[in-house]
Write a structure and sequence with these properties.
The protein contains 11 helices and 8 strands. It is α/β, with parallel strands linked by helices. An 8-stranded mixed β-sheet has the order 1-2-4-3-5-6-7-8, with helices on both faces. The radius of gyration is 22 Å and the shape is elongated.
């Protein structure tokens, strides 16, 4: 009888061990796939929209060369654009939006994050390591272009990046932050993003969520709780923030921005747009959207 139970026990232990090993190996493998950015070619530049520009090149503290455009204008005050994941500085409607802002008189810097567009790098930093990208861009503005005041404007992934780095005050004054459809809680987002970036269905990706988050932490040194902590620190920012999100957003559910809105500093604005999808309120409500930005820019810089 004892030998019978011992045999059953060993079978159970063996099965659990095999399942655990498969779970760990699959989590690691999927993480290595999901962490790689999909690089899009930059097909247009500001001159296609009647804007003169200078090539901007700068290096991060971890030795990654980044590429961007500096668009000088009547005002020295500068808007810094930070794009989303698997995008680039010219993707979608960005240049059209930049032309609208150019017509307001502001200078602009748009650059490709690491592993995107014309910049170097292979892996995403999940907004954790891209802090170095943002620091390098602000240092470039100060040292090369003599810019003293900026507003950070991030879309999607870029929105999370600018919100989580409101404390960067060494190089220039950050007079405001615009965040369009950012994410708040990386673990909550993992299943959908991993499914869209790999061969796994969302249900399987959801099962692997814990393993993927741990793989991200121990293989790449990226702390999901630290990203949340950095976002929450926005409540220490000295200026109002403009945060907005499309209600029907399927990629980053609006609950992310609703959670972030609880930490915004005094006099900030949180807006929800109807009839638009992920980070495309501008394309649906151009006149209202542009006026919203104009009002925010003027109040932030003055």
């Amino acid at each position: 009888m004892f030998n019978k139970y011992k045999k059953i026990y060993l079978i159970i232990i063996s099965a659990v061990t095999i399942i655990l090993v498969i779970y760990i190996v699959l989590s690691i493998y999927i993480t290595t796939l999901a962490i790689k950015a999909t690089r899009k070619t930059v097909e247009e530049n500001p001159s296609n929209y009647g804007m003169n520009f200078k090539e901007a090149k700068f290096m991060t503290s971890d030795n990654i060369n980044l590429h961007g455009w500096f668009i000088e204008n009547k005002k020295n005050q500068t808007i810094v654009f930070v794009h989303g994941v698997d995008s680039n500085k010219a993707d979608d409607y960005k240049l059209e939006l930049m032309k609208d802002i150019y017509d307001m008189g502001y200078s602009m810097l748009a650059f490709d994050l690491r592993a995107h567009g014309d910049s170097e790098g292979k892996n995403l930093g999940l907004t954790y390591f891209e802090r170095a990208d943002l620091i390098a861009s602000l240092k470039y503005l100060k040292e090369i272009q003599n810019i003293k005041e900026v507003i950070l404007y991030g879309s999607s992934y870029g929105g999370t990046l600018v919100l989580s780095n409101s404390d960067l005050t060494d190089d220039v004054q950050i007079k405001g932050i615009v965040a369009d459809s950012p994410f708040y809680d990386l673990p909550r987002l993992v299943a959908g993003e991993v499914s869209s970036r790999t061969f796994l269905p969302k249900s399987v990706a959801s099962t692997l969520k814990f393993g993927i988050i741990q793989s991200i932490k121990y293989m790449y040194g990226i702390s999901a709780p630290k990203i949340i902590e950095r976002i929450q620190n926005i409540n220490n920012f000295n200026n109002p923030v403009l945060l907005f999100h499309c209600i029907p957003d399927d990629r980053i559910p609006i609950k992310h921005s609703q959670d972030i809105s609880e930490f915004l500093p005094a006099n900030s604005q949180y807006l929800e747009f109807d009839y638009c999808d992920h980070s495309n309120a501008y394309e649906i409500e151009k006149k209202e959207f542009t006026q919203m930005l104009k009002t925010y820019f003027e109040s932030s810089f003055n």
